Amino acid sequence: MSAADPVGALAARHRWRWPEALPWLAAIAAFFLFPGYLALGAQILASILYGLSIDLALGYGGIVTLGQAAFFGTGAYTAGLLAAHGFGAPEPGLIAAGLAAAALGALSGLAVLRLSGLAQLMATLMVAAMLQSAADKASTITGGADGLQNMAVGKVLGLFAFGLYGRTAYLYALVVLFVCFLGMRALVHSPFGRSLVGMRENAARMTALGAPVFARRLIAYAIAAGMAGVSGALYAQSTGFVAPDSLGFDRSGNILVMLLLGGIGRLYGAFIGVPLFMVAQDRLSDLDPAYWYFWIGLGLVLMVRFARGGLLGLAARWPAGRMRRE
Amino acid sequence: MHQAVSAAISIGFFGLAYAMVLYLISVGLSVTLGLMGVVNLAHGAFAMFGGYAVTELMARAGLPFWAALTGGVVLVAAGGAVLERVLYRRLYGGDELDQVLLTIGLVFISLAAARFGFGTLDQVFHPPAALAGTITIAGRSFPTYRSFLILCGAGLVALLWLAVDRTRFGAMLRAAVDNPRMAEAVGIDTGRLFAISFALGSGLAALGGGLGAEILPISPAYPVQYLVDFLTVVAVGGAGSIRGPFLAALLLGISQTAFLYFWPAAGSFFIDALTLGLLMWRPRGLVPAA
């Protein structure tokens, strides 16, 4: 598997390695070790999926987005509105949420992907901001700033109700995350995924090679939007509540920080950054939110100074490190 | 008819005052983006600390408004200069995601510092006695402080533009925005230029934050809450441009005031839609730099 055998080298990238089982083993262990924190755990798992959606759009697709909450919130409201109007079965709700968010991604992508750099970043932000205003003001449909409250979420597979302790929510989120992750892993290792990386590195050259840059980016953006939508639906279904802040700037910004903390464009960045960020936030905010902001802020500054490329980037610089950014 | 004129005048008046504050704060951001290529998401923090310095120096140290304002600008500009040396200069021409991460880190730290130092409530801002109350012009009364904001803002903008157009430093700045490597080749010390521009931009932000504390209330959430507005002004105006953001601030400030006047129920929906439309129409800004 050297330059002499490029096909073999590419195939080897796709092969599973044993460390890839670690996040899943950790998630299963956490289920038994921390029964009191499963509600938080379910949110962490849903956020990892949300982080993966940013990794696909930004890390692999090179699409500068600060408005991913548009899709997260669309998914959350889709699942929430369905549950509030008598369609409470979680699985169809999840699929509907993913499709609605993906459709919005394809539609807004038609505009956003024509831009680049700062203009693209601002355009993604504006799409999310418009939806947030709409959700905030259309209170007859969404409940406005008070949020959508009369959701009646059904049982998972018709058997397991979402309970107070979050056991169902946790396992449900874990299975959904695993399925979506398998899809994303296959996608980024596929020729389609390789061409996305090529476009990120040099769009002009990929155009010259005959790759349909715009169309492929649009597809990637829509898939990423769909994943964010599923993640939003997981949040809505497990908490039984949706508010306009699910479309807000914080929702877009924090997840980006979490992903960059773990390492972007490496597939596993979200699995490290999201739990680290959310557990630390949960613990430190208990003491005083000022502590939390101070320590996360200091951590970010030090990381840019000493550990560029996130924690996985740090690991990759050790000689044995194998999780290279692609 | 009479009512329509009335509405137009008050929209123009309040929109103009808001636009002045937006521009003073955002122009430094435009320079950092265009000149150093740094997406400084922490720019709002400089404005916030300007606001805190003004309100606190007036309330606790009993300084008069002018002295407090000057003090705030000097303090924040000095802080900006230090941060530029220690942190920002490593980011020039570097990875955008590193810039995002570092500057968001600074936002969080400033948020914690503001919470810790001044609590979570909005700062109370009293304009000086000479600028309190209202003045009457042609039978209409206007808040004195906002009228002062418009005049003072217009004066500062004129001064800034003159400085950029007519001084040696301004010429060096324009040269470096146009082509940094060429500027360096003809002997401009760009490192020093960057440091001075960064400090000036921070100082202007502090000035805008202090002057505008009545319109954009000072609280720990400030750097996050108004970040999008500042970024919008720069993106719509044209990053690196000095005049573009002014045009954008006028356009956005006045139209936002108008939308809120005529259709408060729609919130910020239309201003966001307008911004999106402007970005699609002119991706490099209304007045692209270079």
Short description:
The complex is a heterodimer of chains A (326) and B (290). Chain A is mainly alpha-helical.
Biggest pleated-sheet summary of chain A: none
Distance between the termini of chain B: 44 Å
Q: What is the first-to-last residue Cα distance of chain A?
A: 17 Å
Largest interface by residue count?
A-B, 43 and 46 residues
Mean of all residue-level pLDDT scores of chain B: 89
Order of helices and strands of chain B: HHHHEEHHHHHHHH
The helix count of chain A comes to 15
Instruction: Please identify the structural class of chain A as seen in this structure.
Output: mainly alpha
The portion of residues forming beta strands of chain A comes to under 5%
- Helix content estimate of chain B: over 70%
DSSP E strands of chain A, number: 0
Structure summary, number of beta strands of chain B: 2
Parts with pLDDT < 50 across at least 5 consecutive residues of chain A:
320-324
**Major sheet size, sense and barrel closure of chain B:** 2 strands, antiparallel
Q: Provide the helix percentage of chain A.
A: over 70%
Level-2 CATH architecture of chain A: Orthogonal Bundle
Features:
heterodimer, A: 326 residues, mainly alpha, ABC transporter involved in vitamin B12 uptake, BtuC, 15 helices, globular, B: mainly alpha, two-stranded antiparallel ribbon, 2 strands
Structure report:
- The complex is a heterodimer of chains A (326) and B (290).
- The C terminus of chain A is likely disordered.
- With 326 residues, chain A is mostly helical.
- Chain A has a single domain, classed as Orthogonal Bundle (ABC transporter involved in vitamin B12 uptake, BtuC).
- Chain A starts with 5 loop residues before the first helix and ends in a 9-residue tail after the last helix.
- Chain B has a domain of 200 residues.
- Helices cover 71% and strands 3% of the residues of chain B.
- In chain B, strands 1-2 form a two-stranded antiparallel ribbon.
- In chain B, a hairpin with a 2-residue loop joins strand 1 and strand 2.
- In chain B, helix 1 runs parallel beside helix 5 and helix 2 packs antiparallel against helix 3.
- The termini of chain B are far apart.
- The interface between A and B is large, with 43 and 46 residues.
